[in-house]
């Protein structure tokens, strides 16, 4: 399915009479030149058959590569992997080396010497190692789901900006068509005014209609430049300014899947908080230490050194206050994440229902708008013919032209809105552009 795209070149028909067809006002020429500069990338892309057309999927990928969380994704994964490596270790903390020397050199100096070299090995508390590994696994899952949710949110921003550009470009196309028609009408009125068939008041009305079309075109060009700049601020530079017009496919899903990026993110946050709470429950005291040391000593000078080995255990006392604080904090994080998960699930369900209703409504609006545009186009042909024959006055002709332009605009806008509604439905379902 392709979006309706109608391009009618803007022309200026010269006339030797006194009417508006003799030349465009200086302001209109300036605005038209500005619009041509703003649309230069698009024009070059349309004339170059080999120009690259940017798709919605490519725009989303480009926007994600620029996102801060995407830049820090590798570092976060490395941190999660490092935490897993620590949890898989057989010791709770890094080893500590102890070195000491004892001598009576400063007082009696009888040659008493003692040298001690030892190592302190921190030990896991019961259940602490297994829970630490579970926390590390949960942390890795939380990192991945957080990045997926961030990418999904970026896709939503790109989708909104993407269809805003298409809507503004349709407005520019229709504004050009309106101006071309107004110029043609002004030329005909000028010729008939010179021949005496119409009055100067009719010529002024035709001039006013052309001036209104020029202003509408200038506004449409400015709106397109603003929309394109908003898209570039998300995706970065858009090569040639050429964007694909194909709407996204109708999704087969009808409800939020458990693998929805937001639901996964909150679910992993709740799981991480639960694992953290379980780990905090095992950390009621500091880690014990196994001490291994070797001692080399002698009592007086001339006596051989004796060698001995020391084995000891250091067991810290527990602190209920600190343990309760850690457990309570982790429990609070778990409760908040689970509550947010429930709220988000309900919100997504409501958003999906609303998006599906918008898609169905957009289809009806497109059918009605197309029907109106077809009737308005046919009516315009009737009144153009009757105006040339002198059977219709100029105000009626101008009113019919405005109705036809508005009908065409509504038809084109309806198709853009239908494509946007499809994108919003896919966004609510957690689907990225394909």
Quickly describe the structure.
The protein has 434 residues and is of the alpha+beta class. It is built from 10 helices and 4 strands; from the N terminus they run αααααββαααββαα.
The number of strands is: 4
The gyration radius over C-alpha positions equals: 38 Å
Q: Please identify the structural class as seen in this structure.
A: alpha+beta
- Across the major sheet, the strand order is 1-2-3-4
Beta-strand portion reads: 5-15%
Q: Taking all residues together, what is the mean pLDDT? A: 81
Describe this structure in words.
The protein is 65% helix and 9% strand. Strand 3 (289-298) and strand 4 (306-314) form a beta hairpin. Helix 6 packs antiparallel against helix 7. A 4-stranded antiparallel β-sheet has the order 1-2-3-4, with no helix packed on it. The longest helix is centred in the last third of the chain and has 69 residues, at 320-388. The model is unreliable at 1-50 (pLDDT under 50). It contains 10 helices and 4 strands, in the order αααααββαααββαα. With 434 residues, it is α+β, with helices and mostly antiparallel strands. It has helices spanning 26-38, 40-47, 56-66, 68-71, 73-88, 128-195, 200-235, 261-282, 320-388, 394-428; strands at 96-103, 113-122, 289-298, 306-314.
